[in-house]
Automatic annotation (TrEMBL):
Ketoreductase domain: residues covered: 6-195
KW Oxidoreductase (keyword) present: yes
Keyword Oxidoreductase: yes
Family: Belongs to the short-chain dehydrogenases/reductases (SDR) family.
Annotated keywords: Oxidoreductase
Domain of life assignment: Bacteria
Organism: Paramagnetospirillum caucaseum
MF term (GO), any: oxidoreductase activity
UniProt name for this protein: Dehydrogenase
InterPro entries: KR_dom, NAD(P)-bd_dom_sf, Sc_DH/Rdtase_CS, SDR_fam
């Protein structure tokens, strides 16, 4: 799909990976709407790229529906949806304070997995009403998984489970929506230089970088955005979760 003139939703687009995607899509001529809990930051990015922004909580259906409706009013129904909203708190099953509170586990699942599905189902509802374009395509959805889905470390049970769920739903979603000309994909990034990571202690960042074989550095958000753009433009990509990790394989801890 050529992004030029196409309405696009970037969820979690106020910073990090999502911001890079929003900027890349705008550069390619897409009409970009940024949905994010950080309304002020989203507004700044939207103004800089000539897009639209709205406050949004992916775990709250009313909030998400309102944000998507506002974006639809501004740009029309979205054919491109990239979901980068997520959190990555660490927590051992049993730590110094005892068993991990169940609410902590549920919060990660609710934001990363249930939130991703919530975005996808509402986006698909809009796409279904669109006329197919080149090649019979109605839309493309890209979710964000993680290499932790496959090699979660100690303290990552909640995060790994949430991202494993994202990766697991890509193929069945793509199979279901294929007849409607809607593609579904995911990117599983390694360790990227986003606020989530750059806020960690230097020694932690250095340890993570040491595990990235080549290039021997943190990933850059623009590289995630470049892959997202390629996925959007390459119609044969469908039903896959693609690792973007510099050959990194996470160790146990």
């Amino acid at each position: 799909m050529d992004p030029m003139g196409v309405a696009a939703l970037v969820v979690g687009g106020a910073s990090g990976l999502g911001e890079a995607v929003a900027r890349a899509l705008a550069h390619e001529g897409a009409k970009v709407a940024i949905l994010d809990r950080e309304a002020d930051k989203a507004g700044v990015v939207a103004r800089e790229i000539g897009g639209f922004s709205n406050s949004c909580d992916v775990t709250n259906t009313e909030s998400l529906e309102t944000a998507i409706t506002s974006a639809r009013t501004a740009h029309g129904p979205a054919r491109i949806v990239v979901n980068c909203a997520g959190i990555a708190p660490a927590g051992k099953i049993f730590g110094r304070k005892g068993a991990l509170p169940l609410d902590d586990f549920a919060r990660v699942i609710n934001i990363n997995l249930v939130g991703s599905f919530n975005v996808m189902r509402l986006a698909v509802a809009d796409m279904m009403g669109l006329e197919p374009i080149s090649g019979g395509e109605r839309g493309v959805i890209i979710n964000t998984a993680s290499i932790a889905a496959f090699e979660g470390q100690v303290g990552q049970c909640a995060y790994a489970a949430s991202k494993g769920g994202v990766a697991s739903m890509i193929l069945p979603a793509a199979r279901e929506l294929a007849r409607s000309g809607i593609r579904v994909l995911a990117i599983a990034p390694g360790v990227f230089g986003t606020p989530m990571v750059t806020g960690m202690p230097t020694e932690v960042q250095d340890s993570l970088t040491a595990k990235t074989l080549f290039p021997h550095r943190l990933g850059e958000p623009r590289e995630y955005a470049a892959l997202a753009l390629h996925m959007i433009e390459n119609q044969m990509l469908n039903g896959s979760t693609i690792r973007l990790d510099g050959a990194m394989r996470m160790e146990a801890s």
